[in-house]
Amino acid sequence: LLFPVSNLCGKCRPRDTDLLQPSLNFLYWSLHQTTPCSQQRAVAVLLSNVSLLELLQKVLECTWLWSPPSGPACLSSESALLCSGWLLVASLLLYQHRYNTEVHQTLSLDLTEVLNAVIFRNKKPILLLVSIMQFLRAALRQNFSSSLLVIVGQDTAQSATQPQPSSLQDAALHPLATQQVFSLVVSLQNLLVHKDLLLSQAVVACLETLVEYLYVKNQDVALHVTSQPWHRFLLFTLLSGGQKSFLQPEVLRLMTLFVRYQSSNIISQKEISQTVQEAAEANLAELPEATSCALHLFLSQV
Question: Name one GO biological process term (predicted).
């Protein structure tokens, strides 16, 4: 079925949402719900379909033209299609890298536009933000060097002829700019305050991947990002309200991140002891899977 469905998608236009929405979802789940052997073949089928990749390029570019609906806050058909497009492309990036699949058509994206879609939320639905962050994570994990993806958006000629004081730092983080990194981190912090479970998981995962990328590129920038005092305020904001336990997946994963990069001004021995004490008193068998995994990572890091 992958072959005819992907061909069908290639014949559509981005506004054919009624047909494209279930079709892209079918392609996405076909990649994720199959055996490793079939998965490799599925990736090859999709990446050999030039018309499909051209269609995906157009769908993603519709994100820059997206505007919030005037009616009730809900996921419109246009927003849902954008979600499916970003999730499918993120998966193709992941599996193309895993299987080193031949690419017949590249996708070209302006990195500034991608980052601005997250930094300037503009009432975007949570699922759309999560989908874009999934893509951003996949690109970061591959150092923006996937053979499927061409990143544009930075004027390298200008920076070469007119070097700025921060040009060396920006060159180390390329294609990210230092200011983009700081803006993205602030935006991720703000999104965490919404305390939506799906959004929190995506935000923390994106923050983890971003810091890993930064640490490889420039350790000083990575440590500067993880030691920002605002993180401590954010941590205790997440602990306020109804559920004050440290045993919340997003709290555990944030604390793991700060322990890993030795941000002692953000998480102290006291918080670590409190978390271990809570874990000792909890019924571990009854913890949700996400909490168990996050707790395991935290204790291993400690």
Answer: meiosis I
The answer to whether 204 and 250 have CB atoms below 8 angstroms apart is yes
* CB within 8 Å of 9: residues ≥ 6 apart: 20, 23, 24, 27, 51, 52, 55
Residues of the chain with pLDDT under 70: 70-74, 153-166, 241-244
What confidence score (pLDDT) does residue 194 get?
84
Distance CA 135, CA 91 (A): 8
Q: What percentage of the chain's residues is helix, strand, coil (to nearest 5)?
A: 70, 5, 30
pLDDT in tens, 157-205: 334 334 454 577 788 999 999 999 999 999 999 999 887 889 999 999 9
Asked if 215 and 150 touch (Cβ cutoff 8 Å), the reply is no
Q: What is the pLDDT of residue 28?
A: 97
Res 171: pLDDT: 87
A 10 A CB-CB count for 76 gives 16
C-alpha span between 264 and 90 (Å, rounded): 34
Q: How far apart are CA 244 and CA 67, in angstroms?
A: 36
As a whole number of angstroms, the distance between CA 252 and CA 258 comes to 10
Cα–Cα nearest to 111, from 16, 176, 15: 176
And the tokens for 151?
């990143």
The number of angstroms, rounded, from the C-alpha of 231 to the middle of its chain's C-alpha atoms is: 19
**The pLDDT value given to residue 11:** 96
Q: Give Cβ neighbours of residue 265 (< 8 Å, ≥ 6 apart).
A: 227, 229, 232
